[in-house]
Amino acid sequence: MKTDILIIGAGISGATLAERYASIGKKVVIVEKRDHIAGNCFDHYDQNGILVSKYGAHLFHTNEEEVWEYVNRFSDWYKWEHKVIARVDDKTVPIPVNITTVNTLFDVNIKTEEEMQTWLNENRVAFDPAKNGEEAVLNRVGEVLYEKMFKHYTKKQWDKYPDELHASVLERIPVRHNYDDRYFSDKYQALPKKGYTKIFEKMLDHPNITVMLSTDYFDVKDQISGYEKLFYTGPIDRFFEFKNKNLDKLEYRSINFVTEQVDQEYYQENSVVNYPGQEVDFTRIIEYKHFGNQQSDKTSIVKEYTVDDGEPYYPVPNEKNQAIYDQYKKEADKLEDVYFVGRLANYKYFNMDQAFKNALDLFKTLEPAKELAI
Ligand code: UDP
User: Fold this and answer.
1) Closest C-alpha among 167, 141, 166, 127 to residue 88
2) What pLDDT score does 225 carry?
3) Are residues 231 and 322 in the same domain?
C-alpha cells in the first residue's frame, strides 16, 4: 500500500495530523492497533443510554484560543465546569483544597481569602523550589493535608510516593484561597454535545484518509511504502525496542476500569469522587450520568484501579524516566521524516488541549505555507 503520510495511532495527535494533511490534498493512512478510533477519548452509549468513556473521564479545558477554535470545527460544545469531591475521614470535601475543604476537615471558620492565606502560611512547610511532588504539596498546604489528601492517593495512582515524582505531577492541582470549587481555572471548559468519538469521526471523514483498525503497525510496516512522512504516536520505547535492545524500558501506568451496574437513579452526588485514603484500593469513582446531567432510571459507576501492566495511559514523570526518555529522544532525532507526537511518544503528561496544540504546531512547522487551508 502506498500513501503520502503514514500515521500510527488514531488518538488526538494522529487524528489532528491526518485532518490537517488531508485538507492540503495529501493521502493519509492511519494504522490503529485498537478496534476503534479516538484513542483514550473513545466514548459510547452504555446499556442505560448513558454516554460513557471507555478509558476514564475526559474533561476538556483550555486557554488556547486556537485549540478552542479548532475543536469547535468538529462539534458543538456545552459549558461544563468540572468539580471533584473527596471522601476524607468520613467527610466530603472539595478538591482542589479551598476554604470549604479546610473548614470541613479542621472544624475552623475561615471566611476570607486573607484568613485562608494566614492558615496556609501557618501550616505550609516552605520549599523553594520544590524538588519533588512531596515538597510541592508541603509547600502549598502543609503536612496534615498532604497526608490526608495527596500521599496515599499518589501511591495508589503511581505506585510511588510523591517524593519519587516530579513536582509538576502534584502541581497540576492548584490550591484555592477562596471558595472556588472548580477543578480547572481555564477560560474554556466544555464537553462535546455528542461525545468525543463523533469528533474523531468527523475529523477523519475525508476521502484522502484511510483508517486501518485492529492493525499493529509493527505487523504491517513492511507493507506500507512511499510515504513522505511518518508520525508515530505510540509509546516511544516500543518503536525502538526491535532495533536497540540496550535501552531501558520506560515506565507507564495503566488503569483497570471496573464498571458496576447500580439499580438506582444515582449512586453518588457528583461525577467524580476521589478516595485519597488507604481504606480502599481504587483512586476514584466516576458516575458518568452526571456529565451533561444525563437522565436514566439506573446508573453505572466505574472504579479506577491504577496498575503497572496493561495499556499504557500515563508516563511516569521523574528523573529516572526522563533520563531513559532522553536516550530514546536521541535515537528519534537521528531519524529523518519520522516524527514522535503525543503523550506516549513524547513521554509527557499532556492534557487534551496540549495534545491538539502540539499536533497543530507540528503541522505548522512542517507545512508553513499551507497551515491556513481548512
Ligand atoms: N492527586 C492527589 N489527590 C487527589 C487528586 C490528585 O494526590 O485527590 C495527585 C495525584 O498524584 C495525581 C495528581 O495529583 O496523580 C494529578 O491529578 P489529576 O487529577 O490531574 O490526574 P488525572 O486526572 O490526569 O489522572
Assistant:
1) 141
2) 86
3) yes
